[in-house]
Amino acid sequence: MVKRQLIIEKALELFAKQGFEATSVQQITEYCGISKGAFYLSFKSKEELILSLIEHSMSQFISEIDYAVNNMQNDRPLYSFFYRTFIGLLKHSNMAKLFIKDQGYSFSDELFLKIRYYDSLTDRIILEMLEKLYGEEIEATKYDLMYCIKGFIQTYSGMFLFNEAPLDVSLLSQTLVEKTDILAKHSTLSFISKDMMEVYEHPQIAKETLLEMLEQKINEIDEPIEKESLVLLKQHLIEPSLSPAIVKGLIENIRNHPHCKWLTYLLRKEILNDWPDGTAPLS
């Protein structure tokens, strides 16, 4: 097994047992049977490890749900959504349990935005599915309906993830399809507006945090084009002087670098106020 992948999988087991806060790098290295030096060759900090862990689990989880719902031959997308979601939660149960148990952990701005990014992908899948199923009938209530669906998932997953009893995923999915259908067809009052969703979906990262991330990448990266692009982007963030076209070009220069994909997403949001529809990187 590749060492980086070994660390991710073993650390997840420890995090699930003890939580993020209570688990140290020393404990992780002992559990993996490696030295601290070997750990820091793969990850610069526990925070970076947690980020990679979230990306590893959530990108798989979201991809599986999206494929199940949008399969052209699927004539029961709502059932498939619930079924694949609960199967996925069981498959990634350590991660699911961790987020349920360790909600008090203080996430950095970057981690918070990463989690929100994956949550927004789930929102998009649900909304597109509801619009295809019910059309204009739910235009006024679709955001409330989306949160009801997410509430169903959170409530039932919290019940069965910590219970050793057998779970009939098919029956559970059927009952939630029925409940969702009733809500979609009979709800008339809405609470969540499009404006409220805009505010919630676009949380801001602190400028100081973004500058620190840029400085870190400048020190890490040796490639001259990417490095110079990062320097210019940092200068522009401190004192804007470049045109949007030049900024876009600089961001494009770093977009495909394996260590800059997430930073690219954040820069597009912060500098260009660009909220891509599903175009942000998954890795």
From TrEMBL:
Record has DNA-binding as a keyword: yes
UniProt entry tagged with the keyword DNA-binding: yes
Q: The organism sits in which domain of life?
A: Bacteria
Quote the Pfam families the UniProt record gives: TetR_N
Q: Which UniProt keywords apply?
A: DNA-binding
Family annotation (InterPro entries):
Homeodomain-like_sf, HTH-type_Tx_Regulator, HTH_TetR
DNA-binding region(s), chain positions: 24-43
Q: The HTH tetR-type domain covers which part of the protein?
A: 1-61
Under the heading PANTHER family, the entry gives: ACREF/ENVCD OPERON REPRESSOR-RELATED (PTHR43479), TRANSCRIPTIONAL REGULATOR, TETR FAMILY (PTHR43479:SF22)
This chain belongs to the protein called: AcrR family transcriptional regulator
